[in-house]
């Protein structure tokens, strides 16, 4: 949600992911790893998904791409280019109109030369030219295309994965922590490329735990906590604490180097021990009994919040 009245590249509403597991062989167990999650990306936008480790960021990426294991039950509405993203359509667009830069470099096929992997099924001269341009621009020397993944360093593999994502007719790029292990200059170049890609009328969902990076490159930020979006904010909202909506986002703001480095006590709850009602309740200075009830998502200015204490004027979607 935002005040933008622009074309939606991606819109996800009410996503929930539950893992069905067997504990001690017989007892069935349900792990609700994502609940009530909404997020959208408009054309021209980089939306950063920010959250600490285990908040559900990679699961979101995999849920969009239909890559979760079979014991995961996924519910929710997915629209891509303003049309439902059915399983069949997903298969057709994955790796093409929707590209993933995965969090792990292990996604490269160990048995295929990297140049061929980047080109995919495209055999044309144009594809070869484009792959070579991308490799050159990411400082991958001539000859890299003929290497196998085990011959590439971690940083090289990251740049190869980025090249793969920027090859095709991509409209939505989902980048899951794309830059760790890369030199600063290359990481900056990747972010510039994402900007250019978005400016050309496409969308980027940038998954990161690095809020400062997110504020530098994104247009909007979705804050994840314990498997849900607690707030969607414009980057400009981070100019002051008052403009932020959720106590967790405010706490993240206060923990930033320029804002006092104050760390909040406690930990994000593990999915097995989610509290009743607000997932942030046990750590929230504003907690009261009502926070244990249902917490609807509300629209506040050009963003959203899941907090009943946020007292600002509410505008319905
Ligand atoms: N296959 C699975 N079965 C059960 N639980 C899982 C599975 N995959 C992930 N989880 C759990 O779901 C939660 C979210 O995981 P996810 O990988 O999406 O986190 P993340 O936000 O991407 O973290 P990180 O920043 O460390 O990459 C974690 O608690 C994780 O343990
Ligand atoms: Ni992850």
Automatic annotation (TrEMBL):
Q: Name one Pfam family in it.
A: oligo_HPY
Protein's UniProt name: Nickel import system ATP-binding protein NikD
Q: What class of enzyme is it?
A: translocase
Q: Where would you find this protein in the cell? A: Cell membrane
**Signal peptide segment:** none
Q: How does it assemble?
A: The complex is composed of two ATP-binding proteins (NikD and NikE), two transmembrane proteins (NikB and NikC) and a solute-binding protein (NikA).
What this protein catalyses is: Ni(2+)(out) + ATP + H2O = Ni(2+)(in) + ADP + phosphate + H(+)
Superkingdom, natural source: Bacteria
Q: How does it sit in the membrane?
A: Peripheral membrane protein
Tell me the ranges covered by the ABC transporter domain, including all copies.
10-251
